Amino acid sequence: MSELKEFRLPDVGEGLTEADIVAWHVKPGDTVKDGQIIVEIETAKAVVELPCPFAGTVVRLLAEEGQTVDVGSPIIAVDLSGGPVPAQPPPAPAQPAPPEGEQRQAVLVGYGVKTAATTRRARKQTPQPVPNHEMSAKLGAGAVASDPKGAPPSEPNSRAKPPVRKLAKDLGISLAQLTGTGPSGSITRDDVQRAASGTTVRSDERTAAEDQRIPVRGVRKHMAAAMVSSAFTAPHVTEFLQVDVTEAMAAVRRVRELPEFDGVRVSPLLFVARALLTAVARHPLINSAWDEAAQEILIKGQVNLGIAVAAERGLIVPNVKNAGGLSLPALAGALHTLTETARAGKATPADLAGGTITITNVGVFGVDAGTPILTPGEAAILAFGQVKDTPWVVDGQLTVRKACTLSLSFDHRIVDGELGSAVLRDIGSMLEDPVRMLAWS
């Protein structure tokens, strides 16, 4: 006898109220084990893989890829008896979402329990579980039964969003026979409607640009809100310093040859990071936060160094925990691992939480300088511009040197011009002469 159980979207430990379904790793009929990864979700900070908390047979998926789902809403139904999936399994009764302010119980191993009440926006009504034949037609991939109405179901096609797939199904259009005119060849509503009206699209018609809309959700939505909040909460000041980094670039090349750095990527960013960490040790107030509620300045005892990364899903700032306590080889390894993980979309909420000061490397984009916006909750952010050959006066003689521009933005409630200038000048001095890092460390 089947024992149907629904897995509800959990709060993965960062106080989220909703998440987007990115990709399912299972389909109806699959057997799942306790702890097996079944779905990727995108929260306000990162893409997270969710394991199933019980074993059984997948009966149906209750949310489509691309759909935004509230925390507490069921996303998958599993038969714990492990028997075969019935053609039309009976829908399980929908359970009400937890009342506003009620403590959430642990629903996912490893993510802990929220012990305090959480203020949330009003919930949308939790959708009723969808019968298997209807969900199969919507999902395409993973369907276990055809639409009883006889309409041809839309083929599984990652180039079309769920609303477009549904439109194609309703109109009886085969997505596999369409040529997409959207971004990266994606199939749009207009493509489906043209096919339904018998209008063909020639390849040379793709040059006709159309308006496009990009949904703002997940990481991009969080980033946008954070930047607006930071820009209009903390009074920003930005100072600039052009620095001769010829000696620092030479030091980078020498360090790459040391056995301690074998297999570790060494870049100029490593020396910029070490210079900033040394400057923080000399000027601890730069590593602080403004506590509006307490009307206090909180000086952080540990430096969690954030590195701004332009990932596919938007700007994120993972951080190296206790970066000030790492040796130079350990710091190099941590920076490389962190940035590669973030670019691959695998940064965890823990990687993104708790930063105290940030570096943004705009030089990799061929940019000389900028006025970076503070990461919320931090007092300073350093922008590192591109290193390039520059005319420079050395001992009264004009020569060509490697130079870059440093930009330091800071919260003027905490950091005044004198402190900001001292920090920036210290960083510049250490990059001009890396031996100063040894003297000041």
CATH superfamily of the largest domain: Chloramphenicol acetyltransferase-like domain
CATH-defined architecture of the largest domain: 2-Layer Sandwich
Helix content: 25-40%
- The CATH topology of the largest domain turns out to be Chloramphenicol Acetyltransferase
What's the number of helices? Answer: 10
Task: Using the CA coordinates, give the radius of gyration.
Answer: 27 Å
> Which overall shape is indicated by the principal axes computed on the Cα atoms?
elongated
User: How many structural domains?
Assistant: 3
* Strand residue content: 15-25%
Could you tell me how far the N terminus lies from the C terminus, measured between alpha carbons in angstroms?
Answer: 69 Å
What's the average pLDDT? Answer: 80
What is the element string, with H for helices and E for strands? EEEEEEEEHHHHEHHEEEEEEHHEEEEHH
Largest sheet: 7 strands, mixed
- Assign the CATH class of the largest domain: Alpha Beta
Which parts are unreliable, with pLDDT below 50 for 5 consecutive residues or more? 87-156
Could you give the topology of this structure?
Elements: E1 4-8, E2 18-24, E3 31-32, E4 37-42, E5 47-51, E6 56-61, E7 68-70, E8 74-79, H1 132-139, H2 162-171, H3 189-197, H4 218-233, E9 236-244, H5 246-256, H6 268-282, E10 288-291, E11 296-299, E12 305-307, E13 309-311, E14 314-316, E15 319-320, H7 328-343, H8 349-352, E16 357-360, E17 380-384, E18 388-394, E19 397-411, H9 417-432, H10 435-440
Parallel strand pairs: 12-16, 16-17
Antiparallel strand pairs: 1-8, 2-4, 2-7, 3-6, 4-5, 6-8, 9-19, 10-11, 12-15, 13-14, 17-19, 18-19
Helix pairs in contact: 2-3, 6-9
